[in-house]
Amino acid sequence: MWIALGGALAAAAAGMVYAVRGRSSSLLAPSVYRGPRDRAAIALTFDDGPTPATLAILETLERHGAKATFFACGLNAERHPSILKAAAQAGHEIGNHGYSHARLWLRSARFIYDELAAAQRALTAIAGTPPRWFRPPYGVRWFGLREAQQHLGLTGVMWTALARDWELPADRIVARLLRAARNGAIFCLHDGRELQVAPDASNTTEALRRLLPALRERGFALVTVSQLLGGGRQR
Fold it and tell me: N or C: which end of the chain has fewer CB within 10 A?
């Protein structure tokens, strides 16, 4: 009996971990982690901005004719409104990454809704268009997120490959993402470091300078999440 009970508890724990952190899970809220595999396209996404580092990223994207989705924190957007506006005016997509990059797990449904709604208001006021996509801070979802996303018209976006650019040097970031380059991939990088006002993201910008031409040589279109998914919401 005790062996059976232990196995049941282990299975329940594993199921909970998948629901909360699994990139392909939609158990706690509608979410996607990749696009169609029949088209040579990759969605570039950047979390935690905007920051001054975003400007160098925008220049590199422009140089290679690439578009991206910036999952911005509402607080950072209010600190650097001109940078967020520059990204939107350059044809990039703005996504919701919460207002204060707060951890959502073990939080109330009210707290989760307020975080998303505050970011949605801030980003809409600055960029001019309400975000369609939401990426949870740290990639962790929780109970109440489904209702918050539905009320605000948001769909969750996880990733196919995580750059780990907050800790890795440029060469390892590039190698990591090139290994994961395939049709429909969603790459997660960072143009900020949580709520740091002016973070050092030089490894990210250097990695991007090397990565984009390599992806172009392989024939990939570099697009926003909406462009990757064909412009339609996935529920």
Answer: N
* pTM > 0.90: yes or no: yes
For 146-204, the pLDDT digits (tens) are: 999 999 999 999 999 999 999 999 999 999 999 999 999 999 999 999 999 999 999 99
3-state helix, strand, coil in the chain (%, to 5): 45, 15, 40
Q: Which residues are catalytic?
A: 47, 190
Say whether 96 sits in a helix, a strand or coil: strand
Could you tell me the residue ranges of all domains in the chain?
A: 29-228
pLDDT tens, position by position, 98-115: 999 999 999 999 999 999
Parallel, antiparallel or unpaired: strands 93-96 and 69-72: parallel
Phi, psi (deg, nearest 5) at residue 42: -130, 135
N-to-C CA span, the chain: 40
Beta strand 31-32 with 161-162 is unpaired
- The superfamily (CATH) of domain 29-228 is Glycoside hydrolase/deacetylase (3.20.20.370)
